[in-house]
Amino acid sequence: MAHTIPLAHALDDSHLSPAAPAPVVPALVDLSAGTARYHHPHYLRVEQNGPDQVRFVFREFTGRESEPSSPLEMYRDPALTSEQCTMIGRQYTAARVLWSKRRMRVQAAPLLETAALRWSAWTIAHDTVMSRFAEFATLPDDRWRSQVLRLLDAHRVARQMAADWDDIAEQLAVVVDDQHAVACDWRDELDLTVVAAELGVDVKGWLVDHISAYRATPYYRHDTPLVARLVKTIDEQRARLADVAHLTADPDTGRQFAPNRL
After folding, report:
1. Which tens digit of pLDDT belongs to each residue from 89-124?
2. Core-most of 106, 137, 168, 172, by most CB within 10 Å?
């Protein structure tokens, strides 16, 4: 299956008025004469795509090929003009974009499958935390301490589920970052939601941050994104229960909810 990608570039360097028709320079459009040995193996042809654009056509990439890279030999070939070298370089740029998108799809597919399971586990754990906390409002006083234990257990489970999610989210962030780094131009960046939709995976509500959010810094330690969100919720719940314990003169319960993290 052939793939095409438009790549804008000036076909005419004479800076003619827009009113004048832009001439087609055969040497820039026809890359067959004397340049075939430098073409990417997937390259099929180049087509003019308007007065100032060309479109490179390739056979389908698998995403498992080596990253397309312009052959250095062409820059030392005296038989090639600078225009031909430029066109070949642009051919490889177009090839890299298509290759990077296919590679991202291949790498993201198994990760998205695992991520769907982990997000489901996290959702259940988070809902349990919120439910356990809400139950305090209707419990009789003699059941508060047992409910505290249930809430703390829910906190620990949710913390683990959040950490598991952030682990797979970081892997997805790496895949996205790799594709965007190859694409360079934002118009050629592939969004993870597009890939997920193609695979029928519902990513609504998922928290997948930029790769930098998952990496430790040499200056300070920070929680990964979903863990940080959960810790904020836990701290808020602890503070609320500590206030209640203080106001009801229950110092033992208050000490249990003194500020600390799991």
Report:
1. 999 999 999 999 999 999 999 999 999 999 999 999
2. 172
